[in-house]
Amino acid sequence: MPVFPSVEWFQAVADVVNKDPEYRHLGTCDARVGMEVGEQVFIINFEAFEIAAITRTTLDHKEDLDFTLVLPPEQWEAMIRNIKAHGRAELDYTLNSIDLGTATEFARADDYYRRDLFYRFNQSFQHFFDASAKIETQFAEPARR
User: Fold this and answer.
1) Which of 11, 50, 75, 89 has the greatest number of CB atoms lying within 10 Å of its CB?
2) Quick check: is 99 in a domain?
3) φ, ψ of residue 84 in degrees (nearest 5)
4) Quick check: pTM over 0.85?
5) pLDDT at residue 104 above 50?
6) What is the CATH number of the domain that holds 120?
7) Helix, strand, coil content of the chain in percent (nearest 5)
8) In a 3-state reduction of DSSP, which class is residue 45?
9) 126: containing domain
10) What are the two backbone dihedrals, phi and then psi, of residue 119, each rounded to the nearest 5 degrees?
11) How confident is the model at residue 128 (pLDDT cuts 50, 70, 90)?
12) Which of 61-65, 91-95, 126-130 is the least confident region?
């Protein structure tokens, strides 16, 4: 069972998405997206109709990303638990709702045009996270995050 957050967890979700014909119906998606979970940063490369690669980087090496989604670990966990419980994100746990409801920016980038990819391809990113309902997830202990 993959542990969140880890490359293995994001890759398990990517494997589900890459086999899902519904994902292709959303259209092409090209973006390098960072997922910041505490002090860890994971990069997801969305290329055309698939997730091409999952890697890990550091907080200091995010400059080549289109944008980074930033939440504290406990909020990421709440979102993923909600998705697992309901098969997809309920209203308060969608990426759009989180973006609108956080006091600080959820989708962050120095370049607004690159950050706009979050809005342009939002359905693809939401589909990615909703696919996490299909995998078993173990959560890292708070001290290890």
Assistant:
1) 89
2) yes
3) -65, -40
4) yes
5) yes
6) 3.30.1050.10
7) 45, 25, 30
8) strand
9) 3-133
10) -80, -40
11) very high
12) 61-65
Contacts 24+ apart (CB under 8 A), 100-108: 102/71, 104/70, 105/70, 106/69, 106/70, 106/71, 107/67, 107/68, 107/69, 108/67, 108/68, 108/69, 108/70
Whether residue 143 lies inside any domain: the answer is no
Query: For residues 33-72, b (16+ Cβ closer than 10 Å) or e, as one string?
Result: bbbbbbebbbbbbbeebbbeebeebeeeebeebbbbbbbe
Give the pair of three-digit tokens for residue 80: 């993923």
User: How confident is the model over 34-91, as pLDDT tens digits?
Assistant: 999 999 999 999 999 999 999 999 887 777 899 999 999 999 999 999 999 999 999 9
* 144 within a domain of the structure (yes/no): no
Beta bridge partners of 107: 69
What per-residue confidence (pLDDT) applies to 142? 65
- In this predicted structure, the answer to whether residue 145 has a pLDDT above a threshold of 60 is no
134 CB burial (10 A radius; 0-12, 13-18, 19+): middle
Question: Is residue 141 in some structural domain?
Answer: no
The label of the residue with tokens 């690669």 reads 53
- Total number of domains in the chain: 1
